[in-house]
Amino acid sequence: MSETSGTDPRRWKALVFIALAQLMVVLDATIVNIALPSAQEDLGISDGNRQWVITAYALAFGGLLLFGGRISDLWGRKRTFVTGLIGFAAASALGGAATGEAMMLGARALQGVFGALLAPAALSLLAVMFTDAKERAKAFGIYGAIAGGGGAVGLILGGFLTEYLNWRWTFFVNIPFAVVAALGAYFVIREPAGGRNRSPLDIPGVVLSTLGLVALVYGFTRAESKGWSDSVTVTMFVASVVLLAAFVLTEAKVKSPLLPLRVLTERNRGGVYLSLGLAVIAMFGLFLFLTYYLQIVEGYSPVKTGFAFLPMIAGMIVGSTQVGARLMTRVPPRLLMGPGFLLAAVGMLLLTQLEVGSSYTGLIMPAQLMLGLGMGTAFMPAMSLATHGVEARDAGVASAMVNTSQQVGGAIGTALLNTIAASATSAYIADHAAGAANPKLVQAQAMVEGYTSAIWWAVGILVVSAAIAATFINTGHQGGPAASGDSAEGAEDEVKIPVMAH
Question: Are 452 and 428 in contact (CB under 8 A)?
Fold first, then answer.
């Protein structure tokens, strides 16, 4: 094995630049949410088109992830990583300089395209650079904490930039991140020889998977605003089922598939993709509702709201770097993932008790700590298993599958839980509005009723996640290649960690 194996003296420096790129992609997802109202006003974006600032990014990112993963296997991970960073910086500059709606939406779509190149390449690089089991656990723990906590850091930074500077800075802030990470990666990262997949690109697979995933993500996004029975929503869902079924059939037949079915059919990997996708549905819903609850019901400023999420970040950091990373080499993954998701479910259960004026320190803070700790502990081994026994040539595409399951999970979570919340809020207003002495209070109570109804669903989803992790995943602890019965060559690429894409 080349010098980039466990003995590469620059591997920890490389981790800094890979983690920095990861932080930028995760920050970008939430930082824009806070800047959106000001940007909408400045650029004259209509209320109907406002969601496209978020959706354009989500569609490009989610739709092209598998393609991005395959490109990193074909071109080489380092080259794909640096290209993704430079493109992301250019798209961010375009967004910050936007003079109208079309320019803004184009910039967001471009950010999604380059993000889809960047994310799988970063994950694959990390896996091939850290080959010692204990070091690997530590490196992925650090990376996982950034991936999980970056979203909340985005809320804090977005609040500061929007309140004290200007919404344009929520785009411009990406440029120094990208430039530093690209230069660092160019000079520090040395990718091991071999491990590339030079077979020709599966064009039908690229087209079918991209269109199928775009239709799926757009169907859920549209369901949130137009309803589940809307004709376009239904058409999108039907189209996505047909396209993705055609994609699976194509992959089973072509000589060099975009997504080799062997990546999906191994039970441990399948269990990880499924349980992570479901857990992200619950997480996304919570992020959204807690942000609304703190800002609209409790009147927190954007900056204060960002800081209110710190206990969840702290829990995630402790869960992934202390609990998950330390136990990963000693305990089978299912014994970390199952209890981790259950602990998160208990934290979520506490939040079903939310009321107008609930105590932050008495209810919200302990719930967030449990959620963060549970998720951090579960994500750590899940990420290490995401490419369980996968061949080096499939590393990029296996990493992309984890991101895809989370991206789709995020889109489903936002739409599904928002719809549940909205109908519970409407029902509460219909029951209590007549003869109410304080209509404003009833409105606030109705919103909280909506959030708690949706949070009950999130609790159920997390329990299902825990059950899937406990039943599907049967591999031993990740103490080294022998633990999972893989060859040394497969073990080299065995560990990945996914992006908490928002």
Answer: no
Among positive and negative, which fits the CA dihedral 460, 463, 469, 470? negative
- Alpha helices by DSSP H, listed for 386-438, are 395-432
pLDDT of 149 reads 67
Q: Measured between alpha carbons, how far apart are the two ends of the chain, in Å?
A: 36
44-66: per-residue pLDDT in tens?
A: 877 667 777 877 887 788 888 88
State the Cα–Cα distance between residues 136 and 141, nearest whole angstrom: 8
Q: Are 26 and 147 in contact (CB under 8 A)?
A: yes
* Token pair for 182: 């690209």
Helix (H) / strand (E) element for 283: namely helix 267-292
Greater confidence, 198 or 299? 299
Coil, strand or helix: which one is 5? Answer: coil
Quote the CA–CA distance of 83 and 71 in Å, as a whole number. Answer: 11
At 142-191, the pLDDT tens digits run 777 776 667 667 777 777 777 778 888 889 989 998 999 999 888 887 77
Residues 6+ apart with CB under 8 A from 198: 74
Residue found by looking up tokens 């430079």 in the block: 86
Q: Are 276 and 405 in contact (CB under 8 A)?
A: yes
| pTM tops 0.85, yes or no | no
* CA-based nearest residue to 312, from 350, 258, 261: 350
CA atoms within 13 A on the CB side of 452: 17
If phi > 0 it is left, if psi is from -120 to 50 it is alpha, else beta; for residue 306 that is alpha
